[in-house]
Amino acid sequence: MPIFISYSHNDKTFVDKLANQLVQHNVNVWLDRWELSVGDSIIDCVQNAVEGASALLVVLSNNSVNSEWCKKELSAGLLRELEEKRVVVLPLKLDDCSIPLFARGKMYADFTKNFDEGLKAVLQGIAKITNPSLGRAREEQYDTDWSIDDGTIDGNIALNINFVQLPKRYPYTCLSQIEILANTHASARFIKEQTLTNNHHAKLHIINILNKKLKEDGVLKLLLSDEKMVSQRFVLNGSEDGEVYYVTVSSRRMGEDTGFDVLVNVSGVVDDCYQHMSKVLASPYNK
Question: pTM value?
Fold first, then answer.
């Protein structure tokens, strides 16, 4: 989910610079002038964006604090905080403005003196509230979007890591999935961790075990020669006696056939997932 930037258009020069810096740091941002097209309903688009964003980055300035539109966006973000019981609004101070009363209890990123220091604070704030189960890994030749979800099969926990490899220079994509089915003991271990911490930490426990296994056994890559799905299966032992996971890795190529084989780096994606989740879940807001 993107980071919604709330600001006054009188500050667009600063906001453009900030947004471009965030994009360069792999932050997915929603900026009205980038997203809206002629004929779009501004109210509907902004409302949907605010409701669907990971967080609201609110630019506080003499221009924005006097803007009724910005006040409504800030109020919507603070209301989400009350409803979801988590940090949603990330304020930054652009100039020597009067901070609105209902935002005065928040720490803010200070851009009044140094842009780089303010940017560093914003990036740290965003890292704390990013969704642990969604991410993008960027490589020189391709990007990989991934997500992790969980459910049950016959009463046992099932974890799915779905990822799409997006080459930057070739007309195809690779769609892959890692299915992890826990046995009874491992399912009980997952539910216990879920109860003690939360669902994301429970998933991280399994991802950690898988990541260690792949590093011990060497790099796992799937070779795709045509459009057919390629699969590999193995058994994964957990950190406790009797904790067992049954893993199926599958991948297929879609798009144009370039005539060349493609290697999908499964180990690399799993490590990216683990590193991302570990970083996000280290935040006190996720404990």
Answer: 0.62
